[in-house]
Amino acid sequence: MKEILITGSAKMANILTADRRAMVLMPRFGIDMGFGDKTVKEICREKKIDPDFFLLMVNVFLHPHHFPDKKLQNTDPDLLLTYLANSHDYYIREKIPSLKALVDELLEKLTFPVKDQLFKFFTDYIEEVLEHIDYEEKTVFPYISDLVSQPNPIVSTRWSTGYNIRLFEEKHDNIEVKLSDLKNLLIKYFPPAEDRYLRIRILNELFDLEQDLIDHARLEDKVLIPIVRQLEQNKTQP
Amino acid sequence: MAASIMVAEHSEIIRKGMLDILHHSGLFNQVREVHCAANLPEMVSRYKPDILIVNPAMVDTNIRDELANGTDYHLKLAAIVYHFYEEDKLAVFDEVISINNTRAKIVKKLHRLLQKETVQNKTDISQVLTAREKDVLKLLVGGLSNKEVSEKLFISSHTVMSHRKNISRKLSIKSLAGLTVYALLHKIVSLEDLQR
To answer: What ipTM score was computed for the predicted complex, to two decimals?
Structure first.
């Protein structure tokens, strides 16, 4: 299926109505809905957002087969880091609390020992997500910032410990897998417990979150990591 | 485990003999008799026995469809035979009890039948995995590595990994944490097992 790329002259509203996944991108760029019929270019100018960067992110986020190779060279890594930090905000402040509230409600309706098993699995899962986010913010992002700002690689201690971006890649899959498992456990294996609509609400949240994480991971894989690899290469060939 | 059984046999001698064996077997808390083929569908439908011992002459080969059409009801069929029957006539039965079998043998057959996984039971949640897969799952969830599992079950590491893949594929659950929840829900392990 040929994917139609979004350009600066597209109306922002049309992007959202064409693909609801685009909604979560708005807060990450500091854009509020209610922008009328403005185009991408106009909104970016208003909000002082780099339009090339915005289009790069939107197209990669929404289009699984889009390869951004040519556009990456001039991308400012700091913009990327800001975007990613805003994404994390969304998970920590919005997604996880709302999911947790629903699961708490479900737990009240279940009986032992099923109740404890779900509680443990879910709590562990949330902890893993939060740990992963923490790891990204405390280790990966500073590493990348260093790469950009430090002219001399030997000065950066993180570089000298042999850390590189490949380690980051490997951690992605775990979280996606557990989320998928949770979905299947709720659909197939947890016994019914007077929670028909509640379970549907939880599953809707999980389906949403799953899709968002997939799209988010794609951004990291297709944009962030190639940029960092390039930065690492630049350092080793002074 | 309390099970119920029904005997459909027109010969009174044989039927009463069977009932005696069933009553004394200690396996069943409900034992019913049917002596006429016409009543059979209604009796089965009303009482839903776990096992039906029936004389093949009283039924057709589409007996399963006739008697147990509902998806929730799993009926196990045992034939009581004292004539020669062709193999395909008996194929529909899960077990065959011969008039020559001793009491002990009959009880043994019924006991085994109670525990058997029938074709219909494959839709049962706990029956999706094979016995071997459940063995592997139990050990993996208990914290053993692939190597330790292979040593414990006397199979190769490769086989263990293959079982693990099949388990994940069948259940659509990949993480060890998810498999643990599954195992707990299906009583393949208990909380005490895991705490050790």
So the answer is: 0.77
